[in-house]
Every structure is written in C-alpha cells, then in structure tokens.
Amino acid sequence: MSGAADAEDTATAQEVLRQAQAVISAQNNVSKILDAKLTSLLQASLNLAVASLGAATLAFAAISWLPAWGGLGLATMGACFALAAILSVWGLRGSNLGAPAIVPAALFERGVHRLPARLAYLAIAFDLQKVVTYNELASQRAARRMQRALHTALGAPALGASVAATAAATTPQQAVLAWAVMVGAIVAFLATARLFGAR
Fold it and tell me: What does the alpha-carbon distance between residue 174 and residue 74 come to, in Å, rounded to a whole number?
C-alpha cells in the first residue's frame, strides 16, 4: 500500500512540475507575441514619422503649396510618431525571461539529486514558481510599454491637427475650439478603450 501511495505522490509531484513548465512555456509564447506586435508598431511608427516629417519640410520650400501651419501640424505629428517608435524600442529591449527548466548545476548545488523523486520534483517546481512570477512581471511591463506606444501613435494625428488648427486660427476662439475638439477626441478614445476592456 505504501508503494502505491508513494507512486501516487510522485505522479502528483510530476504533474505539478509539468504544469509549472507549461505555464512558463506559455509565458514565453506571450512574450514572443508582444515582441512581434511591438516590432510592427515600431515599423509603422517609423514610416509615419519619416513621412510626416518629410512632408513638413515642404512648408519651407521656396515655392510652397503647403502653408506654414500645415507644416507645423505635420512636424508635430511626426514628432509624436517618432516618440511612439522610441517607446516601441524601449519595449523591445532585451529581456531575460526564465526558461521552463533549472540549470543542472544549480540542482546539484542544492542537493536535489539526493532527494526522493517526489520531493525532487516539488523542489524543482518551487524554483520554477519564482520563474513564473518573474516572467509575469516582465510580460506586464512589456504590455504597458506597448500600450503607451500605441496610445502615442493613435494620438499623433489628433495632436498634429490641433496644432495645425491652432496655428491657422485667426481668433482665440478658433484656437480654443481646435483644442476642445482634440480633448473631446481623447475622451472618446478613452471611453471606447474602457468599453472594450483595453484599460
């Protein structure tokens, strides 16, 4: 009976270890997805920044069809897209995620190889729990950075248009209206994000 109980305990410990390894593998996959999204956002932001800043230079041509206020708006938009690109790069910084395994040398140093199988599995699972916690925090940081970069990129056109409208305004009322429209757009965006659970 004792042998059957030991086998059952060992099988339970193995399952705990397997679950820990599965969670870490899933976390690594999520990290790859976040990196892919950040890379796409970086590429789009860079392209839009170059296009906006390039178009803004048309306002400084000798014979320009683009008014100065339009160039200012495009330059502002380009700067926002450049900031979104920087935030994307910040999110893509090298992050050392934990692997779903423990280095054998560390196990030998702790004497895990001398423990009964059941206790050895549980000791390894306990170490992997620390990896799970570390990976979770790293993923949350990357997700927050991606959200900041995305919000910056999404806000670029509204800010650029507001700056252009303010520069083109002939009365203070027109300038205030331009900024009121931008604030309204931001409030609508945040309300939509909350509605869809993005915040």
Answer: 19
Q: Considering only CA atoms, which of 153, 199, 158, 140 is closest in space to residue 41?
A: 153
C-alpha separations of 33 from 37, 60, 105, 126, 196 in Å: 6, 42, 31, 27, 20
Give the residue ranges of DSSP H helices in 92-116.
104-109
Q: Which residues contact 57 (CB under 8 A, 6 or more apart)?
A: 71
Number of separate helices (H) and strands (E) present in the chain: 5, 0
Query: How is residue 138 written in tokens?
Result: 């790293």
Give the predicted TM-score (pTM) of the model.
Answer: 0.75
Please, how many CA atoms are within 13 Å of residue 46, restricted to the half-sphere of its CB?
A: 9
Cβ burial 20-33 (10 Å sphere, 16+ → b, else e):
bbebbeebeebbee
pLDDT value of residue 52: 92
Q: Which two tokens stand for residue 66?
A: 């683009």
Query: What is the tens place of the pLDDT at every residue in 51-107?
Result: 999 888 888 777 777 888 888 889 999 999 999 999 998 888 766 777 777 888 887
Tokens matching residue 74: 């495009």
Q: For residues 147 and 199, what is the distance between their CA atoms, to the nearest angstrom?
A: 9
Q: Where are the domains of the chain?
A: 2-153
Quick one: tokens of 126?
A: 């306990």
Cβ neighbourhood burial of 169 (10 Å; 0-12, 13-18, 19+): middle
